[in-house]
Write a structure and sequence with these properties.
Blueprint (H helix, E strand, L loop, with lengths): L1 H12 L3 E2 L2 H6 L14 E4 L3 H14 L3 E4 L16 E4 L6 E5 L4 E5 L4 H8 L4 E2 L10 H6 L7 H4 L2 H4 E7 L5 E3 L13 H5 L8 E8 L1 E2 L3 E9 L2 H14 L3 E7 L1 H11 L8 E8 L1 H17 L2 E7 L2 H12 L1 H6 L6 E8 L5 H15 L5 E4 L4 E8 L4 H20 L18 H4 L2 H14 L17
Parallel strand pairs: 2-4, 3-4
Antiparallel strand pairs: 1-2, 5-6, 6-10, 7-11, 8-9, 8-10, 12-14, 12-15, 13-14, 13-17, 16-18, 17-18
Helix pairs in contact: 1-3, 9-11, 9-14, 14-15
């Protein structure tokens, strides 16, 4: 029935709907390791009205709908596992309004975080959520993205004030207000944040903004042991030191970054920290954190307010995934992530490192440890079945350990189709049934990003 959908859209969008194989293939693959699944057609929307028309056409003909921003997801979130139409919102890239006094803005879903921050910098503002990839803000909202700044500024959940979304019946809803709090009815904004396009296609997002800090200081410190680095993190959080970013790289990841980005760091467990605030506050935070690090075996402490040097280090951190993959050219990578209560972080990371060593696989650890979230990039040769089995077992043990500690199978990557098997370990049957009821109510025919987020019910 895709032909009928394409025919219905051509008078509205012209040649911005495509069935070309190369276009379809591009929209069926993300940055992860899961098998790609191309849609049957792609439409490049430029407005909420065009998205609504596309969804309505798909509803009429029973065709699946998959939303697509920049394709930087990792768990098969945008794969067209049941075919259908992909709605690419990357051309919906307008910053619609910036309210400087109220510290908020409204953007179309295809605006990227870097593009928004270029606009905001003119008014001394910025949007802090930084997942590393230059993702679209619609995609970041749909996956409840997080990143390096979450320890201070929270995640997308904390910074989305409202959304405009197209529902499965083609209707358009506007959630939230510009007020900083409300008790008026259900919180539909947070229902859609993190729904991965399974409840609606997000077309606009209203966001909370922040003033650019007076001073930004970055620091690095190497440690004799992974345990010492993690203990420093835990005590810094407990003391309330105002870190904006707090990242951990194990020695395998540091070596990978040295090779890939040429940063020349000591090959040892490393903390990469950033502090935001007034000159006096930042100076005090840097000194306090440095003292903690020394007490736990930290050495080579270096801090700087030089932007070029900070940017160099953070560029290497943001390239960590590709640096890790480059350790074994030709290998595939399972870029998994978990999040645990901060009190269990050391145990979880050290037990995971022991599992990696026992598996004999190469698997760097890197993470936003300030909020208990870390990643393992498990490398394996796809032509060696034993390596694939070992990689999958390692991932399963990591998730099971995190969930047993009161944590989650994913801190920021989302479920997609790649982590469906872990949902039952995190949510009881009644909770999953409630989720399915919401999905059924908003998408009764199941056309919105089918095969994602919710596992099929038993029986």
């Amino acid at each position: 029935m895709i032909e009928a959908v394409v025919d219905a859209l051509r008078p509205l969008v012209g040649d911005r709907v495509s069935t070309a194989e190369s276009v379809r293939a591009h929209h069926g693959r993300d940055e992860g390791w899961h098998a790609p699944a191309a849609p049957e057609a792609v439409v490049f929307a430029r407005s909420t009205e065009e998205v609504a028309a596309a969804v309505d056409a798909c509803r009429c003909h029973g065709v699946p709908v998959i939303a697509f921003g920049a394709g930087t997801s990792l768990e098969g979130n945008i794969a067209a596992v049941r075919g259908g139409l992909t709605i690419d919102v990357s051309q919906m890239d307008a910053v619609l309004e910036v309210n400087v006094d109220d510290l908020d803005c409204r953007v179309q879903a295809g605006v990227t975080r870097s593009a928004l921050n270029k606009v905001l910098a003119r008014d001394g503002l910025f949007f802090p959520i930084d997942p590393g990839a230059d993702a679209t803000l619609g995609g970041m909202t749909a996956t409840r993205a997080s990143g390096t700044n979450a320890v201070r500024y929270g995640t997308m959940k904390d910074n989305v004030l409202g959304v405009t979304a197209v529902l499965a019946d083609g209707s358009v809803v506007h959630t939230g207000t510009r007020a900083r709090k409300s008790s008026a009815g259900y919180d539909l904004t947070r229902l859609l944040v993190g729904s991965e396009g399974t409840l609606g296609v997000i077309t606009e997002v209203s966001l909370r903004l922040y003033g650019l800090p007076e001073v930004i200081a970055g620091a690095v410190c190497s440690f004799a042991t992974l345990a010492g680095a993690v203990r420093t993190v835990i005590e810094a959080i407990q003391m309330g030191i105002g870190m904006a970013r707090l990242e951990l790289l194990d020695e395998v990841q540091v070596e990978a970054c040295n090779r890939f980005s040429g940063v020349g760091l000591p090959v040892a467990p490393l903390l990469l920290v950033e502090f935001h605030g007034s000159a006096v506050a930042v100076e005090d935070q840097v000194a306090t954190f440095a003292g903690l690090a020394r007490a736990h075996g930290g050495a080579g402490w270096q801090s700087t307010t030089d932007r070029a040097e900070r940017d160099r280090l953070w560029a290497a951190r943001h390239e960590a995934y590709y640096a890790g993959k480059a350790l074994r050219p030709g290998a595939l990578a399972i870029p998994t992530d978990v999040c645990v209560p901060i009190s269990r972080l050391a145990e979880c990371i050290l037990d995971t490192r022991a599992d990696i060593d026992a598996s004999r696989l190469v698997a760097p650890i890197v993470g936003h440890v300030g909020d208990g979230n870390f990643h393992v990039v498990v490398l394996f040769d796809p032509d060696v079945p034993a390596e694939l089995d070992a990689a999958l077992r390692l991932n399963e043990r990591l998730v099971a350990r995190a969930q047993a500690m009161g944590g989650t199978c994913t801190g920021e990557h989302g479920i997609g189709c790649g982590k469906l098997e872990f949902m039952a370990g995190e949510h009881d049957a009644a909770t999953l049934a409630m989720m399915r009821s919401i999905k059924s109510a908003l998408d009764p025919t199941g056309i919105l990003n089918p095969g994602k987020v919710l596992p099929v019910a038993d029986g």
